[in-house]
Amino acid sequence: MGGCFSDLRGGKQAVGVGLTGTTMSPIPTSTATVNDAVDHFFRARGFQQLFTPLECRNMIPKERYVLPNLDSALYKIKVTNVPISKSEDYLEMEDLHLNLTIGSCDPRKMEWSLSLSASRLRDRDILSKSDPMVVVYSKKRDGTLEELGRTEVIMNSLDPAWIKKISVAYHFEIVQPLIFHVYDVDTKYYNLPVEMLKLNDAEFLGEGSCVLSEIVTKQGQSLTLDLHNRNGNRGLKNLGKLTVHAEETVASRNAIEVKFRCSRLENKDLFSKSDPFLRISRIVENGGSVPICKTEVVDNNLNPIWRPLCLTMQQFVSKDNPLIIECFDFNSSGNHVLIGNLQKSVADLEKLHEQKTGANFILPSSAHHGHGKVLKGQLFVDHFSEKQLYSFIDYVSSGFELNFMVAVDFTASNGHPRDPDSLHYIDPSGRFNAYQQAIMKVGEVIQFYDSDKHFPAWGFGGVTNGAVSHCFNLNGSASGVEVEGVQGIMAAYASALNHVGLAGPTLFGPVINNAAEIAGQSLSCNSCKYFVLLIITDGVLTDLQETKDALVRASDLPLSILIVGVGGADFKQMEILDADNGCRLESSTGRVATRDIVQFVPMREVLAGGWAKLCSTSSTRRTTWAVPDLHEK
Length: 633
What we know:
By secondary structure, this protein is an alpha+beta fold. The chain is built from twelve helices and 30 strands. The strands form eight sheets. Strands 21, 22, 25, 26, 28, 29 and 30 form a seven-stranded mixed β-sheet that branches. It has a four-stranded antiparallel β-sheet with strand order 8-5-12-11. It is globular and about 80 Å long.
C-alpha cells in the first residue's frame, strides 16, 4: 500500500520543521492583573486562572499581605496551613508554609514526549514496501481506548524512524497502559492529514502494549516491544518490533530559525542529479539518536537551498546538545542514499553563520578506520536567529483581544428554509439547525475574548435587492455590519431567512477580503487585536483559486479563519484550504502564504465531540485551537 508520504510529492515534504516567517511583535505589557477571558477559559476546564493573586492574612486582624501576580504556567504556589481558630476578621494560623515550584505545576504530573521507531515490519505491498504509521492510545479503566496521537506516514520502509512525537502526561501514582497500533496506509490517501485518515482503510501491521511507567523508569528510557496481532496472539509470524523512547518535555518558549544550503554535493544518480534532503537527529543519553525533523526534498540539485525551518528547545534541548545532520539522496523506493553526515550543536551552527563558513560532510567508511571520508560537499547556514514562541493564551493574557466575525452560506444547495430537510430549516420546536449550532458552539467560546461583543456578520450566495450578493450584511442594514452578541447573530440569521433568497454559486473570496480589510485597518492602528472569521458552508467552492489568492494575501494579517462544513457534501476543497499536510497555500502569482490561517472541521465532528478537540489546548495531544498559535507566522 502507499500512504500520505508514499507518493513523490508527499514523500518529499518537510516534517517537524515548524512554521517560520515574520514573527509577530513581542507580547505587549498590560496593567491588568486578571484577564476575564483567560480566567473563564481555565475555569471552564477545571483549572485555576493563568494569573493567581495570592492573599495571606496574618494574625493581626484585617491586615493583609498580597503576593504579586505570578504566571501559574511557570510558577506554582502552594499554601499549607493549620488553622486553630476562626473569626470574622481573621484566620489564625499556627504555621504557614509557602512552597514555590518553578517549572511543572505538579511534580507528580509531567509531560513526556514519545519517539517511535520500528524494525522488521511486515511487507504488505507487492511492488514496494509498506508505508507505516503508528497510532498511540491510552487504555482507560473501562477498557476503552483514547487516541493520543498519530505519527506521520513513512513511505516504503520496513524499518521506519518516525519524526513526529506523541505527547502524554505522566502520573506516577496511576497505572497508564499504552497501546500502539501500526498500520500500512494506502497511496490514494496521500493528500489527507494523518488525523483524518480512516483506520479501516489501512492495513493492520501489528500491535504493541506497555505501561508508561515501564518506559520512563527504564534505564535510557527506551523500551522495545514485540508486535503481535490484535487478539494478543503472536502466532507463527514475526510481526516486527517497536521501540519507544521517552523524554520529559522541556518547558521553554525558546526556538531557533535556521536556513541551510549545501554546495558541491556528491552525485548519487546515474541519469540525473541527486535529490537531496536533510534529516536532523538529536543524540540522547543512551548514546542513540532520535530524529527531530527533516527538510523538504530539492530535486536535481547538487547545490540545494532549503526553506527556513524552526526548531524549538523541546526538539534540540540545549544549544550545546550534539545534533547529527545527515544529507540523503531521495529515492521513491524508500532506499534513500546517504550522501554524507556531520555532527554539530546549535551553538556550532550559530558560529557557522557568524563566520560565514561551511562544514564538510563525512561519509562513514570502515575503510577509513572508522573516521570516515571527508567529502568536498559542505553545509552552510545562511540564516540563524533566536526567537520566542508565544501561544494564544500568552497573547490574550497580555492584552490582546479577539474579534469574532461570521459568514453564513445562503446558496440554494442548502434547500428551501421551509423544507424540514433543509439545512436552513427553522424548527418550530426550537431545535437548532446545523448553522445555528455552529454559530452557538463557536460564538459562545470566542465571545468571552471580545470586549465589546459587537460582531460583523455577513451572508453570501443569496439574493438581496433583486441581485445575487456574495457578501451582504446579515442584519439587512445598508450601513452597519455589526450585530450585538451571539444572540444578535442568531436573530439576524433567522431574520435573513425571511427576506434573502437562496441562490449561488459558492464564493468565499469577497467575504475573506472584507474580513481582511477590517483586520488590516486594525493593524494599521497598532491595536492589539486578533480576528477570527467563522465561515459556515454546505457546498463545493466555485472560486477555489480566487479563495487561495485571498487567503495568501490575508496570511500577513492578524486573522484566522475557521470553516465549518454542514451537511453531507464533499469537503475535499476545504481540506486543501486547511493545508494541514504541511504545504502552504500558493496564489495564482506564485506567492506562498506566510502561514496557515485556515482550520476546517465538519459539523458532524463538532456534534460528535470534535469541537472539544478543536478547542483543546491540552499539551497531551496535538490538537488545534480555532485560532492558530500567533507565533505561527
